[in-house]
Amino acid sequence: LQAYLSIRSPFRLNLFIAILCFALLTVVYKQILERASNVVPLVSLLLTIVFGVILFIGLIIIISLAISFLYFKSKGSLAQLNYSQDGMQTMLHLETQNLLNLPLLRPALALYFNNKQSTEPTALQSKNGLFVGKFTQSTAILSLPAAKTYQLQHLYLLFRDAFGLFNIPCKVQANTTISHLPTQQSFSIDINPKFTREPEILINEKKKVDGEYLRFKPFESTDDTRRILWKVYAKTKELMVRTPEIWNPYASELQCYASFYTKIATDVQDKHMQHALSSYKQKVYSIVQGLGNKKISLKFKSDQEHTSTSDLRMQITDSEWQQHLSLLNFASSPQPCIAIISGLAAADDVEEWLQNAKKHSLIFYIPIHQLFKQNIVASFLHRVFFVETQSIEKKLRFSWWRHPLRNSINKNEKKLEQLLIDSNLQFIKV
Amino acid sequence: VEQLVSHKKSRLLAQLLFVVLPTVLMVYFLLFHVNLYYSILREQHLQQTLFFAAGISISTLLMALRFRFSTTFVLLILLLLGINIIISQLGTGEFDAFFITVRFRVFASVFSCGWIIGWALYQKRLSSFILSSLFFVAGIYVLLRTGGFKYKQFAFAFGGISLYAAYLIYTCEALRQSSNAKISWIKFCARLISFIGLCCLLLYSSLSYFKKELEAQFKFVQNPRGGNNAVTERDAQGNIRFKDLMSIADSKDKDTTLVLVAHINNYFEGTDIPNPLYLTAYHYSKYDSSTQSFERDINMPSNDEFLPNPGNLPLLQTLTDSQVLKNAQSTQFRSTVEVEIYNKQLSPDFFVAPSTSYFIQTVPVDAPFSGQFNAAYRAKSYVSSLNSAYFIYNTQNPILENFQEDRFAKLRNAKSLNAMDASFIEYYTTVPSAGEYAQIKPLADSLAQNKKTQIDKILAVRDFFWQRDANNKLVFNYSDNPGIPGLPSASKLVHFLFNSKDGYCAHYAGATIMLLRNMGIPCRIAAGFLTENRSSGKNQGWYWYYGNQGHAWVEIYFPGFGWLDFDTTIGNDEAREATQADGTPPSLPQQAPFAITGMVKSIDTTKKQIEVESDAVIFNDKTFTKKTSNFTLDVQRASIKQDTSTLQLKNIKAGDTISAVTYNEKLSKESAKSLNEVMKKVGRPTKVDDVFVKRKKAINNNQTSIKKGRFSISKLNTIIIVSTSLLVLLLLLLPQIALLVFKYLSKKSDNLSLHYQLKYMQLKLNQYVLPYKHQSTLEYAQEADNLFKLNTTKLAKRYLQHKYDNANLPQAYNYLPDFNANFSANTKGKIKWYKHFNFIRTLVYLQKHK
Question: What is the pLDDT of residue B23?
């Protein structure tokens, strides 16, 4: 509401403070006047000059603000709007038409987002500094809180004067979506050595290595003598072998299931759950990417209903908590596989799945409560000495202790962990 | 931390360059001048500025690292307190410790100020407004207080201060607006420079526009033509006025302009040797040791101050205060002295006369002198014949010495104070005795040793100031610039008495008061003009008063004799010698036994008679104001004057206020008890010699011209506030006004009726329901009809038909009542209140659809 007001109200606090200062100066001046000292005429003359100058500058500023605003309101529009992502920062590139670049005036920009799912408008703190570079083309840096797709319905161009007294909002229709994609986080746990230790067992074994013969190389003592190319030898008297293009023996068809199934979280639109979802997505993406980097070819499978894109990142971005497709029903590979489950997963479902799971399957377990855990002493000390940035994460962390699901989730996570320890499968807690 | 620094690096750099650096410069300017003024700071402005700069930079840096202000500031204060304690205990000598501690405190406070300002400027959005107004006020104060400027420097400094104030607000806001993005340095600098350029241009043009006035006012403040005397100052019009308190300052200005001319009708008994008297304006009876000044006190016991306002008194009006005479308590050697004062530069509100005055009558200034003098009045005072300006002059003149001795002898017979009212004595002998002032009592006792009578004690004080050292040089000297003691809190009087021994009248009078009161002698300070007899031959009895004759002296109470003037100031020869030759004295006003002020009822030009309804009638200095009665004045021989010009009788109109005077000497011997008696004595018609016309218009003109001269900020404020609120009101009501205008137009013109009806509908729909964008008229109407059933389409179609198919003109039909009824029925309760005032929508509509 505060952000909403600060965008919609044309008057800023600066204006009131300026008026207050002006009134105080007048009072001080009157005090001098009452003393009837000989400096009064000089002081009043000086004040007249200063107030005159201030008034003049103020008028220029307000008039240029009004002209720019009215001109844009009647003729201007948004010419282009696109975005790019760099790490966790989303850059919004804007180009406007008919925005008058009057001296002493810089419109600032505010954005309004409407999320697909929630109707609650989220005003994003991007009111400042949009039109800094080229005036009509500019880039705003957005710090989007969650990894998901945002529906950008409209945005507000804020016409703000140079002294920051007024803030006239101008609504511009945008109607675009911004997908804030998860980024890969580096994990301290190195999964690969452990995972590749027993590749023969883990994967569908292939004794013969298939490959196309594309290149030659001189024969070495370790090479298979059957591979010597006698025809080449006949011509050149050199022992040559073809080098096979080797399929990575571990890269074939390893299923990776990411489960978004939950039974505990009744209200999945809850802020905490949404934050957990965002963080879960980040971790899922990081795991999948991390495994992929180690030349392990994964077949990623998510339990989402609508998977329109084949792009892994987008798939993860658009994922939501769901309550109908359980792990048991969904991750049913005949081969050993990788499963990613969250702390919100249903314990009985996981238990059943573990009983049926193939040997050598690997489970990534991502607990939720850690997300909201805080070191009270450290955070208190930090609070004492530093100004905290107001982030959603911190707020959520702070309000976690009175969350209705906190106890049940903690219990569930303990149970899940116990189940994972009891099972003879390998699991990694992320 | 590293990440934060890199993220905020450019912001921090910009803050340091564009905000902190100018602030440090501004503080340097302030500290420089404050250092000149306050000796406690010991002229270490550079070091102090460096400390301030350190404070503000470190604070800015820490704030950029997101350190919390409150914690760090508390730590800083604790640290400073700790160092303070250590320093105060480490110092070898007591004095050293004190000195180092004071210096440390100065630096610590400068540093903490820098700390706070750095924090506020970096983190608090609103601080720029508050700080810039604070700096502005401080700058102006320093500019006016510390002085030592030439006009050019003053104007430059003022411009700088104002520029800084505007710059600070602008830059802080600009930095904040671009805080999210990387700063484009060149563009940012260009922006700042263009803003500074604009401000400079505006300031320069307004300063040069007001240059003349500003320069005049500035010179007046800097060197108010000697007005900054111990007891006098100049007001805005350049007139001399007396202050309500006499402070002991470090210097006094010299002023040689003529203030007033007085004729004092006081001569030595049986001779025509003029006996000058000091002119008194105020008495300062109370000493305030906190401000080190002598103050007026309305509640002083037996208040004998007569304070009429000659400026408000109508011409020829008299005023007598009998209470004053009672309080003067003088019974012996009392005589009435008449004085005529011709005012040139004394503030018109002020009244000066020899004490104890009790009567005033304003009199006209005769024509040849009316350009030279602004006003004149007569005054009467009861003056003890023992009182004289010659009283305690140290003089070689045997006649005067004899005269003085004669008077001292008389005063030795004065009654003792024991019979006096105890509270009276206590009030007039109260002096501070604590602290430094304790040194005065022993001195006073040593002077009073072996002196039995009051006058001998006073003479001992006089002789104390006249003492000479071994080289026969005077120990006490007169100086206009005696300076002040090293520590600002030290008493300047004690410093004068025991150390510097240089001072001017305020010092001498103040010190005398201290000594006399310590001896138990009731006394007070009188402020006014010292009188020096420079007259010769024809001009006997005329005295000329220049600005530097503004003076303070001591009045001492003698039981039975009342208050007598004593002047202990020595060596003030400059004020005694005229800096320029005295001019020709104005002719004395004739005795006017009969004067009348009133409103003209009718004029008879043939008989040359005026019928006047009297407001006030004065007969031989007695005023009759209670009843009004009609007088017929015979103006056959009278000269009629208005201000300085002469008028004809026909110029007088009924309703004018006039004053008329008779100089008939026969009447002056008569006396009357009632108005009727007066009427009988002056006869009917009364022959008058002078008629003075006062027109209200003329008075009004004068007042406005005075008002014009002074800029009134409050007036400007009201104009601004009223006009802006009117503008806002107009803007808010714009939608309704526009609607009304369209409605009116649609009714008025037949041809364009449909056009305006449509406009009305569109405006209303646009205002409340459906913003009009780029649709065509018909599209918009259909859209509106889809929302509510309003029949707008019908009107739109009819309008288009009318517009493009002139041939087929159906009779104009008024759709509006229908539309309005439908509209209110459809939108009942749906329209939010603020939509009525959303003028932006109206403006946009009006702009789009001209």
Answer: 94
Residue of A nearest to B161 (CA): A50
Q: How far is A23 from chain B (nearest CA, A)?
A: 10
Residues B270-274: contacts with CB under 8 Å, at least 24 apart: B272/B540, B274/B533, B274/B535, B274/B540, B274/B541
Q: Which residues 6+ apart lie within 8 Å of A39 measured at CB?
A: A32, B144, B221
Q: What is the DSSP letter of B15?
A: I
pTM score of the predicted model: 0.52
- Give the pLDDT confidence of B495-525 residue by residue, as tens digits: 888 888 888 888 888 889 999 999 889 999 9
Nearest to B169 among A103, A106, A163 (CB): A163
Task: Please give the order of strands across the beta sheet that includes B318-320.
Answer: B318-320, B357-363, B375-384, B334-343, B258-264, B542-546
What ipTM did this prediction achieve? 0.71
Chain A contact present for B480, CB below 8 A: no
Inter-chain residue contact A25 with B137, CB threshold 8 Å: yes
Per DSSP, which regions of B178-278 are E strands?
232-234, 240-242, 245-247, 258-264
Helix (H, G, I), strand (E, B) or coil at B796: helix
Chain A interface test: which of B3, B4, B71, B129 (most A C-beta within 10 Å): B129
The token pair at B57 is 């930079």
- Chain B CB contacts of A73 under 8 Å are 840, 844
- The C-alpha atoms of residue B32 and residue B25 are separated, in whole angstroms, by 10
| 8 Å CB contact of A74 and B221 | no
Q: CA-CA distance, B836 to A375, in Å (whole number)?
A: 54
Decide: B131 and B120 in contact? Cβ < 8 Å.
yes
The answer to whether the Cβ–Cβ distance between B710 and A54 falls below 8 Å is: no
CB neighbours of residue B337 within 10 Å: 20
Cβ atoms of B660 and B690 within 8 Å: the answer is yes
What is the residue-wise DSSP string for A151-170? EEEEEEEEEEETTS-BEEEE
CA distance B61 to chain A (A): 13
Q: How far apart are CA A332 and CA A355, in angstroms?
A: 12
A97's enclosing H/E stretch is strand A89-97
CB spacing of A48 vs B182 below 8 angstroms = no
Model pLDDT, residue B714: 65
Interface contact B703, partner A, CB < 8 A:
no
**B686 beta partners:** B633
Q: How far apart are CA A323 and CA A340, in angstroms?
A: 16
- From CA A102, how far away is CA A136, in angstroms rounded? 12
| Cβ proximity of B732 and B840 under 8 Å | no
Task: Give the one of B162, B177, B228 whose C-beta lies nearest to A129's C-beta.
Answer: B177
Strand residues in A116-259 grouped as ranges (E): 121-124, 137-142, 149-161, 167-179, 213-218, 240-244, 254-258
Which of B133, B218, B239, B843 would best serve as a mutation to test chain A binding (most A beta carbons within 10 A)? B133
Q: What is the pLDDT of residues B371-380, one digit of tens each?
A: 778 888 889 8
Closest CA to B630 of B659, B595, B596, B585: B596
Q: How many CB atoms lie within 10 A of CB A237?
A: 7
Interchain CB distance below 8 Å, A74 and B130: no
